[in-house]
Amino acid sequence: MKNNNIIVIPKPWEETKVLLISDLHWDNPKCDRDLLKKHLDEALKGNNDVLINGDLFCLMQGAYDPRKSKSDIRPEHNVANYFDAIINTAVEWFLPYAHIIKFIGYGNHETSILKRQETDIIERFVTLLNYRGGTAIQVGGYGGWVKYQFNHHSKKIGYNIKYMHGFGGGGPVTRGTIQHNRMSVNVEGADAIWMGHVHEDYEMTYTVEYLSAVGTVLLRDILMIRTSAYKEEYGDGSKGWHVERGASPKFTGGRWLYMLPTRTEKGDRIIRAYTHKTI
């Protein structure tokens, strides 16, 4: 049975580069589509996987939505069939990248529409994009797992990414790191824990101690990854909801994840990993 909450991606035993992005808010006029296209084109050129961890869309300009604002709608979406227009135009825009996108998860903007308007924007978008592109993008959850499975002869070595779109606020000082502390308590077996939502950007490494099956004390690293957004709301700092609530300027972009299959001095097969922000 297919489990959308666990996405397995097989890979050969070689360095793998993946584009991690979230909070695109693609339909918002403040989305930096030029920057997004630059990063997607880089992934396309390198045939790198793309993972999208929620809030692909903004979706706040529909009927009866108390958050709507005339300044936050693109002209091509200012039509009677608002949600249909967003899906149709998004399919055309993302079609060149469909074959490198591996999964798209839900963010609070998409789940809000499911609750308010009783339509599943992500499911509709992915279904149409897969139909048009002949691709197999998977719909994820608000949280779930992506397992990269590296094949080395008869062995399969996994790198497990626990993704969660996010919860709570970023905080002007902690910038979302408290949520990673909470996730580290709740999650076992992750090599990386990846969140978005609060429009912050960082990588931290938690090193933990564990006892092996043969009674040896070992250490392992867990990457704590936060990807920011492609919606730039601060502007010149003169006005707007973002400025009025005292929020700071935010980095725009995602992060590149590098997974490096290797052998240790003892001959063990492991996956070393690190990230850096997009530029």
Explain this structure to me?
- The structure is a single chain.
- With 279 residues, the chain is an alpha/beta fold.
- The protein has a single domain (6-277), classed as Purple Acid Phosphatase, chain A, domain 2.
- The chain is built from six helices and twelve strands.
- The strands form two sheets. The protein has a six-stranded mixed sheet with strand order 1-6-7-8-10-9, with helices on one face.
- Strand 2, helix 1 and strand 3 form a beta-alpha-beta unit.
- It is globular, with a radius of gyration of 19 Å.
- The relative contact order is 0.18.
- The mean pLDDT is 91.
Quickly count the domains: 1
Mean pLDDT: 91
- What would you call the shape? globular
- The number of helical elements comes to 6
Look at the helices and sheets and give the structural class: alpha/beta
User: In CATH's first tier, which class applies?
Assistant: Alpha Beta
- Unreliable stretches: none
Strand order of the largest sheet: 1-6-7-8-10-9
Order of helices and strands: EEHEHEHHEEEHEEEHEE
Instruction: Determine the CATH topology.
Output: Purple Acid Phosphatase, chain A, domain 2
Please report which band the strand proportion falls in: under 5%, 5-15%, 15-25%, 25-35%, 35-45% or over 45%.
25-35%
Count of distinct strands:
12
Architecture in CATH? 4-Layer Sandwich
Helical percent range? 10-25%
Radius of gyration: 19 Å
Distance between the termini: 40 Å
Main sheet properties: 6 strands, mixed
